[in-house]
Amino acid sequence: MNRDRELVFFPASTSQRRDYTKRIYRLFTEYLARNGLRLTGPRRRILEYFLGAERHLSQDDIFGALRRYGIGRATVFRTLKMLEECRLINHVTGTSGKPRFEMNLERPHHDHLICVLCGRIQEVRWPKLEAIQESACRRFGFVPAWHRHEIFGRCADCSRKQSAGR
Amino acid sequence: MNRDRELVFFPASTSQRRDYTKRIYRLFTEYLARNGLRLTGPRRRILEYFLGAERHLSQDDIFGALRRYGIGRATVFRTLKMLEECRLINHVTGTSGKPRFEMNLERPHHDHLICVLCGRIQEVRWPKLEAIQESACRRFGFVPAWHRHEIFGRCADCSRKQSAGR
DNA sequence: GTCGATGCAAACGATTTGCAGTGGA
DNA sequence: TCCACTGCAAATCGTTTGCATCGAC
Predict the structure, then answer these.
(1) pLDDT of B87-99, one tens digit each?
(2) DSSP summary character for residue B103
(3) Domain-embedded: residue A132
(4) Residues A145, A102, B144, B11: is their CA dihedral positive or negative?
(5) A94 CA, C16 C1': separation in Å?
(6) What's the pLDDT tens digit per position in B17-57?
(7) Which domain holds residue B26?
(8) SS (H, E, C) chain A
(9) Domain tally for chain A?
(10) What is the pTM of this model?
(11) Which residue of A has its CA nearest to B128?
(12) Could you tell me the pLDDT band of residue B3, with boundaries at 50, 70 and 90?
């Protein structure tokens, strides 16, 4: 299975990737400088891991992958919170309610189809749906800031397997 | 403020209410019997509280209101889980991430506008939106079971107050 | 050198579970 | 009567925080 397909956008070629990484780093260091914070080893490693991951990561994925560098759980939590605050990453509700994270920068807005059997998260773009939603909010005088639109069910693979098994 | 307006549907007249309550109880007792479970005082009280509430309740609301009957937190959690499992109630993500619950039975599907300032939860029906969503899932071979569509932002009252205060 | 960041462990808040006693069918 | 249900307290889970030390600037 090609996990890459599950991401709506991810730089494909090596040069695109290099440029993307560079832009991410610039935004990150600017954010850090603006707030009197520092670019440290653990922060760099976590960001690097996101850049290489191409899928939705849990806190455990990150901690598990980076513990060999002696990075503690607290630091992972602290950094995730920070990256979310500066809008470089986004969080999605995974199956079992545990949050998963995705790179956010320069990626078009999308919603999520979450498979309750295998936990796979598929991204979908629905521009038409977003438009309807916006206008409806306005009718209520409600000023939307962000939203969460997650659909839980069975993905194509799992529902195929399930009906074959019967 | 009339909180009732925030619910898309709730039986209005006394007789409608009585019938609704009767149907809820029948479904609940049937569910209990089917699983070899019992209709106990605490369970009855919690259900009763939902029937009278007409708004989105947190676990704390329920515990707080019923502690005078000596009902423990564990029982509230256990019962909420059970009611959710038999689909009599639904859970919505409140502000601060804590779940809130609503009666689910015989109520048309709706989404939620959640005010990040006052925590108020407003319900919206979007039949057109639901239709688009359904058809898009089908295109992916994804079989939706349930979804969560929550929009966070400022409600009409709060955004008015906020701009007046400036 | 300064002061923010780190890892560790302890603290925390929400939820769950073990258990002995209680009560619904 | 029987066994599910209860409240309580202890346990657990994910996350946060206090603190002494470390390291980026």
Answers:
(1) 999 999 888 778 9
(2) E
(3) yes
(4) negative
(5) 20
(6) 889 999 999 999 999 999 999 999 999 999 999 999 888 99
(7) 14-164
(8) CCHHHHCCCCCCCHHHHHHHHHHHHHHHHHHHHHCCCCCCHHHHHHHHHHHHHCCCEEHHHHHHHHHHHCCCHHHHHHHHHHHHHCCCEEEEECHHHCEEEEECCCCCCCEEEEECCCCCEEEECCHHHHHHHHHHHHHHCCEEEEEEEEEEEECHHHHHHHHHCC
(9) 1
(10) 0.86
(11) A132
(12) very low
CB-based contacts of B50, cutoff 8 Å, min separation 6: B57, B83, B89, B101, B103
Length of chain A, please?
Answer: 166
A7 located within any domain:
no
Give the residue-averaged pLDDT of B10-16. Answer: 79
- Report how far residue A40's alpha carbon sits from residue A45's, in angstroms, rounded to the nearest whole number: 9
B53 part of a folded domain: yes
C1'-nearest nucleotide to the CA of B75: D6
pLDDT digits (tens, 9 = 90+) for A57-103: 999 999 999 999 999 999 999 999 999 999 999 999 888 778 999 99
Closest residue by C-alpha to C1' distance, nucleotide D23: A40
Q: Using CB atoms, pick whichever of B140, B145, B154 lies closest to residue A124.
A: B140
B95 exposed, middle or buried (CB, 10 Å; 0-12, 13-18, 19+)? Answer: middle
Q: What is the CATH number of the domain that holds B126?
A: 1.10.10.10
pLDDT bin (cut points 50, 70, 90) of residue B166 is low
Q: Closest-CA residue in chain A for B134?
A: A151
Q: Which two tokens stand for residue B147?
A: 């979804």
Does A93 contact B151 at a Cβ distance shorter than 8 Å?
Answer: no
- Name which residue leads in pLDDT, A120 or B32: B32
Which of A92, A15, A90 lies closest to A50 in space, CA to CA?
A90
Task: For residue A131, tell me if it sits in a domain.
Answer: yes
- Residue pair A122/A112 in contact (Cβ under 8 Å)? The answer is yes
| For the ranges A151-165, B26-40, B112-126, the one whose mean pLDDT is highest | B26-40
Residue B162 banded pLDDT, cuts 50, 70, 90: confident
